[in-house]
Structure formats: C-alpha cells, structure tokens
Design brief:
Length: 273
C-alpha cells in the first residue's frame, strides 16, 4: 500500500514539474479592428537634415497600417528649414498658419489627429520615435463619422470638382463646433533635400501640402452640443500648371473647431480617379 502511494505521489510531482517547465506562451495581440483613419501632419523642410528619417518613419507606419494613415507633409515657414532650393519652394500660407497656431517648433515633428498631449504640453510630437504609439492608440478608437470623397477632374481646364459626404456613426452630442477641412497634397516630386550626409538633389518628396481648398481651419458643418448629421460639400479648384494631377491626392477630415482641434475622422482619395 505504501509503495503504491509513493508511486502516485511521485507521478503527481513529475506532472507538476513537467507543466511548470513548459515555456509560457505570450498572449496573442490582435490589432484594433475599427474603421478609424488617422491624420498625421508632419512638419518638415528641405533643409532639415533629420527630416528624411521622419519621412521614412511615415512610410514604415503606412506599411504597418495600410489605408489607415493619411499623411500630410507641411513644410516649415522658417527659412532655416525650408528656404527655396533650385527653384522649389514647398511652403504655403496655410501651412504657416497651422505651424504657428499649433506651436510646432523643432523638426521633424508630427501632429496625430491634432491631439493635444497634456503631459508634454504640445500638439506636435517631436522626434519620429514618438509617433508610432500615438498613432496606434488613435487607431483603436472608433470614429464618430464616415467620409466619402468623390472627385472628377477635367484635364482641359485643370479643374477638379470634389463631392464630400460626411455621415455620423453614432448619436453622441459634439462637445465643440465641428468643421470639415479639404486639402490637396502632391507626391513623387523630385527636388533637393538635405540630410545627414549632405544634399540629395534627386530626393522624392511625398504627401506635400499644396493648398487647403476650404478655409485653413475648415468649413463649419455642425454646432457645439448637437449630434452630427449627414452633410455634403461640393468644392471646385483649378490646379496650377506645375502640379502633376496624377500625383495629387485629396484629403478630407472632420474635426473640432473650438478650443480643441481634434480630428474625428480622415479620408484620402486620388485627385484623378
């Protein structure tokens, strides 16, 4: 009887040791499944030697989150960062207003849905290593609206007409007045860029802010305290002759217009369908 009990006890101990020695499997992390699209406004410049690292980071994040990030490259108005080079000048009046009002300073820096980061007291996060976590967090939040962009382009007069449809996804009352901003970016522009190893005169610039075709801070579509209702906006714009329409994109985003500038949802579409 004692021999049998010893055998059972030994078997239990052996099983316990076998289980405890098994490597622990890490939890499976499932990416957030929402329809959120995040606006990332990167402050950059042709004379900013660290900015190519920021450009590469944006490209990497786009590959990590396909069709979930809308990047806009705002070239700084400060000559130390963005003085014209070889006839190229990517500075815009709207970009200067945004940069000054959002108090962007050191480059590269980026705004993520124009969120205000209270712990650091900034809208624009400095250093490209700080962007990924904030973008991932925003992607986990369900959007308050959907945006549909339907552009048409007439090559004869270089006129684009875009219909923007905004629809609510819930019945939450808006805590600020709500606006809609629509702008144009251009990619695949070969122009100079200074980097840590010197000037690259065949650098490809992407997502460059060309113009905001609404007011800089958007068109009002809903009052504070109201629930968001469906809204349609039809806009026209004539492209300058030195822009390549095939490389241009339309960007639209719904956002607060009060003390907060937070972006509720963003969307992007080819200018030439």
């Amino acid at each position: 009887m004692m021999h049998r009990l010893n055998y059972v006890f030994a078997t239990i101990i052996a099983c316990f040791l076998a289980i405890s020695c098994c490597p622990e499997k890490p939890p499976t992390i499932v990416p957030c499944q929402t329809d959120r699209v995040v606006l990332v406004e990167e402050f950059t410049g042709m004379k900013c030697v660290n900015c190519p690292s920021g450009h590469r980071k944006i490209k990497e994040l786009q590959q990590t989150y396909p069709n979930k990030i809308v990047p806009v490259a705002i070239h700084s108005h400060w000559p130390v960062y963005s003085a014209p080079q070889n006839g190229y000048d990517f500075r815009t009046a709207d970009g200067e207003i945004i940069e000054k009002d959002m108090k962007a300073s050191n480059l590269p820096s980026a705004m993520v849905n124009r969120k205000y980061f209270e712990e650091s007291g900034v809208y624009a996060l400095e250093g490209f290593t700080n962007w990924a976590g904030s973008i991932a967090a925003e992607l986990c939040l369900p959007p308050d609206a959907t945006i549909q962009l339907n552009p048409t382009y007439d090559d004869n007069n270089r006129k684009v007409t875009v219909t923007v449809d905004v629809a609510p996804t819930n019945a939450v009352r808006m805590k600020e007045r709500v606006g809609l901003t629509v702008l144009i970016t251009e990619s695949h522009i070969i122009a100079p860029q200074e980097g840590l190893s010197g000037w690259d005169y065949n650098y490809e610039h992407n997502h460059v802010l060309r113009d905001v075709i609404t007011d800089t801070w958007g068109t009002k579509i809903q009052e504070k305290g109201e629930t968001l209702t469906p809204h349609q906006e039809v806009l026209t714009y004539t492209l300058p002759t030195d822009w390549n329409p095939d490389n241009c994109h339309l960007v639209a985003f719904v956002h607060y217009q009060g003390d907060e500038r937070y972006v509720l949802q963003a969307a992007e579409a080819d200018l030439v369908p």
